[in-house]
């Protein structure tokens, strides 16, 4: 395929002579977790999304030649930073994208700015990436902890869920989620009744659930992710938490987690995402193509994977406008100056601190009886407009903005 | 243990055989000096850190017969302290590495004096237990930065003059540290002290009856091994400008066992080769992504079933030399 | 109602019971490990992966042949046990005379392979599996709500554990087994096929792991990494109980479940670490574990 793109580009160049089409070469690296915890959230699905983005863009702009590589950071910051260094230095990669796992993302962000390349974060959650640790070469695309916390926290308080108990993963991202959500809850008049911090990868949550039950809080906020969230909800269903009138709020839940839980167990769970495959026709059409590219008909893309598509599309536009991908800061500046517009996320903007803005959706998991076809997971309960969904610019303490 | 290289070699000396170790050492040094022209230097630097780590580990398992399943403790904590002292206190790299190493030595002294009272699998389990306790501490302590680790550690100026941001300078420094560590271990093994260690490995009761205070020897070996693992960890923190939880968690302890096993337990060069092989695999396989685990597993199984002596052990056995 | 360390006593009862339930899983898993170590002298690191295989087998049986939870409870362990026996014939049998290290490394490699393959085919997020119809709901015990399924877990685990202990320690078959590990040549002289007995023992130990996996499927996340997260803890349980001691593994399994449960109330952050603290202390005070024989 690479060769065909090259040949088409060549043909077009010959056809147009040297007049208009100046060939631009770009190399993109998808750095993701291919083999462990987050491989269903990003992983090979992100690579597939990147391929679609490149195919769509080069069809319309044959003078751009894009090469794509992908790598597995195995959730280890040192392997991630080693790969990023090597990609920038040896493989001449211009853009690294995706990178679930905040630790790895923060490391890659550092490296990217020293080498003046570009890093688009779709997979990692840490809002620090556009806060104290922001830089002029990093864009945070899909979501972040502040947005998740605020979306779910505020919406639930407003609909009566005004007392909270947190089950928090004893990890920096868990603490951040808990802190941001508690702030949102209290700001909107709710109350936090208690919390318990559990180690990462806890097998059994029944003990913590008993504590949550005893607190009599209306909402049990799950400030954790992946297997921990799934285990908590599974035990919750068993211990009759939801039947007893309490409700779970998943602060970091992906479509793949809901699939793993099954609707019977997950029904009623409230969560926030910025993209859902069944939201509109454009998303559904893209999902079909993604499933074909991924070779997995039964899987559904996550917002992280959609973010990879959207991010690459906007990046390539900026590169074409500048006719070069060489200067990372310049490309990022160009990306910030032009509004974004793509099939999946619609129209949006990128803020000075590197935060991409788009609406977020408050979703509720359907009951099995309401679900009509595979992947029919959510009801949309509310849409949070782009300007409310993310942390206000001045609260982030990003040095790019204040200084 | 299985991997003892047959001794009859000694009876039929030839130039190649008597100087095999020297030749191998020269080849290794030459290879490491030429390699950066062909391979990515940062990768080589990291590989050398792991090689030193594996050599330090091998000192215990290969020459004293003690399997530590908690060596991540010394490696990881040294890298934390080196990273922290360089970043927060502004220590120059040489002092940062020294701080990290000292931390590892102290940890090694405490853990070692508890662990050496037990043998075999119980020794392994105590070292694992202590390492997991320190992992928990690393997770809870504020200064380690949780799962984000300590990022953007400055490389700084070595002795106040050499700027380590320069890759060439950094490479030379790492090479020197690695070779110094390697030769130090070689010296230990071939000293009278090393002979006593080997005697303990072969038959501890006999060593005791010969009047050796074996516990004291084992403790010294343990502390030396932990300290050298610390040197490796601290250097890695400066090279990669990063210290993270990965380095203190138990899979890291498992990885160093794998490296040593692949290269050859109880061989001088084995751990070096082993760690290069494993790291090369990790990076070469990174694009394959999903199959990394499976391939690693297959290598494990193949090593145990077919090449129990490891790459270097098999080679030495085949050439009938000592490496 | 009175309080203990600021926690109402009724809540504490609930936590103790939950600890016991978790202990059931530890006991089942460490029992299998102890049987394998005691009889084969192999430290079976792939035990966690085989536990995961049990849960996956239950899922696949439901998905592709419509076999529900109850049949799966028998079929899945048998299937996984057979794969275990194949592994023993093909690989493990060559390692019995070597240092423990090699058995541990081989099974560690196997665990990586099993986990990697599972992840490639099923992804890492996990698979849905629900509690069987007949065990839904629960009892209100006054101090807590006890789901029926959890009660079943305790009963099943206790039955299996003490059944196994009885067979090995108190029957003729068990006596033969123990004799075969002490002195294989002599037992062979009595006309007993020792290698076959060993193979079957390994298969049984693995089947125990798979059984625990099926038991876990309705309540825990069924994912490729479910076993590797547990194996180190179960390992610690076996060591604390005394390597190879069946009774030790069972009692320690339940006991540590309870201790862990209490830690989750008083110092939840440390609930994964407490087991290692106990292991270090036990090994320093009692070198061969709580119930181990000194050799």
List the topology elements.
The complex is a heterotrimer of chains A (403), B (323) and C (295).
Chain A: H1 2-16, E1 24-32, H2 43-60, E2 64-72, H3 77-89, E3 95-98, H4 102-114, E4 118-121, E5 138-140, H5 145-158, E6 163-169, H6 172-187, E7 191-198, H7 206-215, E8 219-223, H8 226-238, E9 247-250, H9 255-261, H10 263-266, E10 270-273, H11 281-294, H12 303-322, H13 328-337, E11 340-342, E12 346-350, E13 356-357, E14 360-365, E15 378-384, H14 386-389, H15 399-402
Parallel strand pairs in A: 1-2, 1-3, 3-4, 4-5, 6-7, 6-8, 8-9
Antiparallel strand pairs in A: 10-14, 11-12, 12-13, 14-15
Chain B: H1 15-18, H2 20-34, H3 41-63, H4 72-87, H5 93-115, H6 120-140, E1 157-158, E2 162-163, H7 167-190, H8 192-202, H9 204-209, H10 214-240, H11 250-263, H12 270-285, H13 292-305, H14 310-319
Antiparallel strand pairs in B: 1-2
Chain C: E1 3-4, E2 7-8, H1 9-40, H2 47-65, H3 69-90, H4 100-122, E3 138-140, E4 145-147, H5 148-170, H6 172-182, H7 184-189, H8 194-216, H9 228-241, H10 246-266, H11 274-285
Antiparallel strand pairs in C: 1-2, 3-4
How does this model look, in words?
- The complex is a heterotrimer of chains A (403), B (323) and C (295).
- Chain A is α/β, with parallel strands linked by helices and 403 residues long.
- Helix content of chain A is 43%, strand content 20%.
- Chain A has 15 helices and 15 strands.
- The radius of gyration of chain B is 19 Å and the shape is globular.
- Chain B has 14 helices and 2 strands; from the N terminus they run H-H-H-H-H-H-E-E-H-H-H-H-H-H-H-H.
- Chain B starts with 14 loop residues before the first helix and ends with a helix.
- The longest helix of chain B is centred in the last third of the chain and has 27 residues.
- Chain B has 323 residues and is mainly α.
- Chain C has 11 helices and 4 strands, in the order ββααααββααααααα.
- In chain C, strand 1 and strand 2 form a beta hairpin.
- In chain C, helix 1 runs antiparallel to helix 8 and helix 2 crosses helix 8.
- Chain C is globular.
- Chains in contact: A-B, A-C, B-C.
- Chains B and C meet through helix 6, helix 11 and helix 13 of B and helix 4, helix 9 and helix 11 of C.
Keywords, separated by commas or semicolons:
heterotrimer, B: 323 residues, mainly alpha, ABC transporter involved in vitamin B12 uptake, BtuC, two-stranded antiparallel sheet, 2 strands, 69% helix, 1% strand, disordered N terminus, C: 295 residues, two-stranded antiparallel ribbon, 11 helices, 4 strands
């Amino acid at each position: 395929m690479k060769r065909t793109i090259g040949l088409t580009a060549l043909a077009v160049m010959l056809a147009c002579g040297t007049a208009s089409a100046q060939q631009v070469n770009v190399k993109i690296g998808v750095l993701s977790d291919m083999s462990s915890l987050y491989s269903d959230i990003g992983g090979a699905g992100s690579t597939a999304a990147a391929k679609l983005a490149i195919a769509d863009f080069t069809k319309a702009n044959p003078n751009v030649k894009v090469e794509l590589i992908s790598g597995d950071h195995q959730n280890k910051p040192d392997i991630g930073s080693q790969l990023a260094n090597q990609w920038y230095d040896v493989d001449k990669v211009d853009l690294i994208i995706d990178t679930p796992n905040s630790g790895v993302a923060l490391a890659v962000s550092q490296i990217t700015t020293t080498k003046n390349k570009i890093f688009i974060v779709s997979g990692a959650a840490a809002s620090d990436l556009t806060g104290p640790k922001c830089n002029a070469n990093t864009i945070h695309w899909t979501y972040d902890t502040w947005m998740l916390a605020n979306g779910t926290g505020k919406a639930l308080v407003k609909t009566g869920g005004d007392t909270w108990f947190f089950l928090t993963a004893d990890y920096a991202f868990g603490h951040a989620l808990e802190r941001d959500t508690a702030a949102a809850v209290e700001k909107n008049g709710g109350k936090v009744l208690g919390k318990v911090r559990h180690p990462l990868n806890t097998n059994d949550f029944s003990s913590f659930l008993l504590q949550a039950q005893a607190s009599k809080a209306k909402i049990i906020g799950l400030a954790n992710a992946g297997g921990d969230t799934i285990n908590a909800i599974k035990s919750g269903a068993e211990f009759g938490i939801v039947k007893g009138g309490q409700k779970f709020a998943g602060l970091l839940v992906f479509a793949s987690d809901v699939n793993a839980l099954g609707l019977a167990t997950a029904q009623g769970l409230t969560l926030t995402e910025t993209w859902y495959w069944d939201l509109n026709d454009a998303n559904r059409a893209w999902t079909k193509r993604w499933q074909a590219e991924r070779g997995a008909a039964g899987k559904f893309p996550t917002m992280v994977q959609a973010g990879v598509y959207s991010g690459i599309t906007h990046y390539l536009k900026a590169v074409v406008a500048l006719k070069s991908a060489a200067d990372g800061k310049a490309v990022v500046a160009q990306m910030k100056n032009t509004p974004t517009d793509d099939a999946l996320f619609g129209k949006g903007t990128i803020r000075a601190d590197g935060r991409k803005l788009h609406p977020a959706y408050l979703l509720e998991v359907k009951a099995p009886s309401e679900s009509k076809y595979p992947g029919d997971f959510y009801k949309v309960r509310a849409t949070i407009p782009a300007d409310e969904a993310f942390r206000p610019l001045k609260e982030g303490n990003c040095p790019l903005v204040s200084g | 243990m299985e991997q003892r290289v047959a001794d009859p070699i000694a009876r039929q000396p030839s130039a190649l055989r008597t100087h095999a170790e020297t030749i191998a050492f020269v080849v290794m040094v030459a290879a490491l000096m030429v390699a950066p022209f062909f391979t990515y230097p940062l990768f080589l630097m990291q590989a050398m850190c792991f090689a030193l780590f594996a050599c330090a580990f091998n000192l215990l398992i290969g020459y004293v017969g003690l399997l530590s399943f908690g060596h991540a403790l010394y490696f990881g904590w040294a890298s934390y302290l080196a990273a922290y002292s360089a970043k927060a206190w502004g220590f120059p790299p040489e002092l940062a590495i020294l701080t990290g190493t000292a931390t590892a030595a102290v940890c090694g002294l405490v853990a070692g004096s508890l662990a050496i009272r037990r043998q075999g699998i119980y020794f392994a389990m105590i070292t694992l237990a202590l390492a997991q306790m320190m992992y928990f501490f690393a997770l809870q302590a504020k200064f380690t930065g949780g799962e984000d680790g300590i990022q953007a550690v400055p490389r700084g100026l070595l002795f106040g003059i050499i700027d380590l941001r320069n890759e060439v300078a950094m490479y030379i420094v790492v090479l020197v540290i690695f070779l110094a560590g390697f030769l130090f271990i070689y010296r230990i093994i071939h000293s009278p002290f090393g002979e006593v260690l080997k005697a303990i490995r072969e038959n501890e009761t006999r060593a005791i009856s010969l009047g050796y205070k074996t516990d004291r020897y084992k403790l010294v070996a343990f502390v030396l091994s932990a300290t050298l693992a610390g040197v490796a960890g601290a250097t890695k923190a400066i090279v990669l400008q990063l210290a993270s939880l990965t380095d203190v968690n138990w899979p890291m302890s498992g990885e160093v066992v794998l490296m040593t096993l692949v290269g050859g337990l109880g061989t001088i060069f084995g751990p070096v080769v082993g760690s290069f092989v494993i790291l090369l695999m990790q990076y070469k396989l990174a694009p394959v992504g999903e199959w990394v685990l499976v391939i690693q597993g297959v290598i494990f199984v193949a090593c145990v079933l077919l090449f129990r002596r490891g790459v270097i052990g098999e080679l030495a056995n085949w050439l009938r030399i000592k490496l | 109602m009175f309080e203990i360390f600021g926690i109402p006593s009724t809540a504490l009862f609930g936590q103790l019971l939950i600890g016991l339930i978790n202990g059931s899983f530890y006991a089942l898993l460490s029992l299998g490990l102890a049987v394998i170590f005691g009889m084969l002298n192999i430290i079976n690191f792939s035990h966690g992966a085989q536990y995961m295989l049990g849960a996956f087998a239950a899922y696949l049986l439901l998905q592709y042949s419509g076999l529900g939870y109850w049949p799966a409870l028998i079929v899945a362990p048998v299937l996984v046990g057979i794969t275990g026996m194949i592994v023993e014939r093909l690989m493990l049998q060559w390692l019995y005379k070597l240092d423990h290290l090699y058995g541990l490394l081989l099974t560690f490699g196997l665990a990586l392979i099993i986990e990697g393959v599972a992840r490639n085919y099923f992804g890492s997020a996990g698979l849905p599996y629900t509690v069987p119809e007949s065990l839904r709901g629960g009892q209100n015990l006054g101090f807590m709500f006890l789901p029926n399924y959890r009660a079943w877990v305790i009963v099943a685990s206790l039955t299996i554990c003490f059944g196994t202990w009885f067979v090995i320690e108190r029957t003729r078959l068990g006596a033969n087994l123990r004799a075969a590990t002490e002195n294989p040549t002599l037992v062979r002289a009595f006309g007993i096929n020792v290698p076959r007995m060993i193979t079957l023992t390994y298969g049984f130990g693995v089947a125990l792991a798979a059984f625990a996996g099926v038991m876990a499927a309705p309540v825990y996340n069924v994912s490729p990494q479910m076993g590797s997260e547990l194996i180190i803890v179960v390992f610690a349980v076996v060591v604390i109980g005394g390597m190879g001691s069946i009774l030790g593994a069972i009692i320690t399994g339940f006991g540590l479940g309870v201790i862990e449960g209490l830690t989750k109330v008083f110092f939840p952050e440390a609930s994964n670490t407490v087991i290692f603290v106990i292991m270090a202390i036990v090994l320093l005070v009692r070198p061969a574990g709580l119930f181990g024989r000194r050799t």
